[in-house]
């Protein structure tokens, strides 16, 4: 058995360790190239902190399965979310998480999603009409409008409609909250507890206003709770068991959690997917044919699903999951003491020849045919794994299928002449930068 300090890893400096080598917005690339150099388990040092980065699909699963007993999300996540009143399913830990997960899961179930499907299609139709009127310039921003609309409608039945209008009050609150939340999660020190910058004060005002709006929705739902839920808050209220009910604070935390967890992840996944389709008319044509034959996103659409799996293999939107050991553990013969940060790199396995032949090529067919090459689908885990597996996967897949099917049916996607490949920045989700796509209306004659 070896200790963390005996693991290989990039050489750091006295006192500050590897801190000066880390570029927050490029962590996913740095961690991948260190995995190539130092292997499936390597160590990093930061002041007062041991860090192990794990990039092996089996070990990743072992760690992610060992929750909440052996590992938790990094404690900063819980404290930042707690301060914002949004300590919900994503950030709760231990028994509190276990209870909440059990109560919340029915709100994500297939029956509920099926009921939501007509609303989802109506929002996709709005996006289609908008793009028909004005070809999209910033595709990622446009897709974020879509996911904001879908998530707000699903969560509390509020029609934000950022696709057709701007300046909605709730949208303005949310636009303020997300960047500051991201910034706080990536700050080494919680400066805002000692010094409030104008942004931090604006955040407090936005949260207070959002709380007021959501509390009114919650109060209405409590009085007129239907038998079948029409939104996430109602589904949570219906799922309460006899042991106690959700307080308004808990419902607010869950609603905000869903709004946060469901937007950037899905809009960026769709942006990367459309980028992978650009300039591949034969792939677009196959999707077009499939959605003509199987129009409902509630049905299996094997080719479209293979395209989504392939895009998320090449660029998972959440490539790194930050964990912390809550008990002493041994992973692959390495002693991991409680308190060690363990970064689970879920991206690396998808890019390895031993798991996927010709890994840098976008080839959806690899998910459909068991050909002669390497294909280990279980090593690509864009939605995490174990008991904290993403509960929004079903909704995300419906959104991805609905938008991709609509775009391929009614538009052509191409790369503009002389377009540079997009950059990628890590902000919990990996965001494409400078992504330019030509999305033009197809002649339907
Ligand atoms: C393509 C889109 C999405 C991706 C790639 C994604 C990815 C992830 C990942 C990697 C995790 C962590 C899993 C783990 O720790 O093992 C997660 C957790 C979570 N996701 Fe998603 N997600 C997406 C969409 C959504 C949507 C649409 C919602 C809600 C409507 C959602 C809600 C959540 C929640 C609540 C958690 C925390 C679960 C828990 O800790 O028990 N996600 N997601």
Automatic annotation (TrEMBL):
Residues 368-387 are annotated as: Disordered. Heme binds at residue 390. Gene3D superfamilies: Cytochrome P450. GO terms for molecular function: heme binding; iron ion binding; monooxygenase activity; oxidoreductase activity, acting on paired donors, with incorporation or reduction of molecular oxygen. Its cofactor is heme. The keyword Nucleotidyltransferase does not apply. The keyword Oxidoreductase applies. Keywords: Heme, Iron, Metal-binding, Monooxygenase, Oxidoreductase. Belongs to the cytochrome P450 family. This is Cytochrome P450.
